[in-house]
Amino acid sequence: MKLSEGLAALAEKAKNVETRVDEYTREEQAKRDALKEKWSAEYAKAEQDWNTAFAEVDSSMNAWWSGIQSNYENHKAEQKAKWDAWKAEHDLAKAERNAENAEADAAAAVAYAQLVANEAQAIAIEAVGARAHAEDLKGG
pTM of this prediction? Predict the structure, then answer.
């Protein structure tokens, strides 16, 4: 075999190896691209699932929190109504006690005034009698 034929055969083998390497590289690149595409799709799906689940949890939490706030506001309103009713009842009782005390004070003042008026009348009669006696002694 001549050198040129050996070189041509070697060149042909090199070309075949080069072709196989190019095919292998393309196949591997295609596999990597397919994996990348698959993983990107899986990531997008997982992200969508995550966002959907998060939105459901967020909605659920908002509903739960709104329920707690609503229950608290209702409880607070009930307690205020009970407090207002209790206060009104006790304010009425206090007002009635104050009115009864004022009426008793007025009755005592009227009784004292009547006693003083009777005493004043008795003293006035006594004074008239004393004056009459004094006048009798002077004139008489």
Answer: 0.43
DSSP string, 89-110: HHHHHHHHHHHHHHHHHHHHHH
CA–CA dist 42, 48 (Å, integer):
10
Q: List the structure tokens of 116.
A: 């003083």
Which token pair is 25?
């590289």
pLDDT digit of tens for each residue in the chain (140 aa)?
687 788 788 788 888 888 988 888 988 899 999 999 999 999 999 999 999 999 999 999 999 999 999 999 999 999 999 999 999 889 888 999 999 999 999 999 999 999 999 999 999 999 999 999 999 989 86
Rg (CA), the chain: 59
Cα separation of 71 and 63, whole Å?
Answer: 12
Q: Pull the structure tokens for residue 56.
A: 């459901």
Q: Residue 12: enclosing H or E segment and its boundaries? A: helix 3-139
Side chain identity at residue 33, one-letter code: D
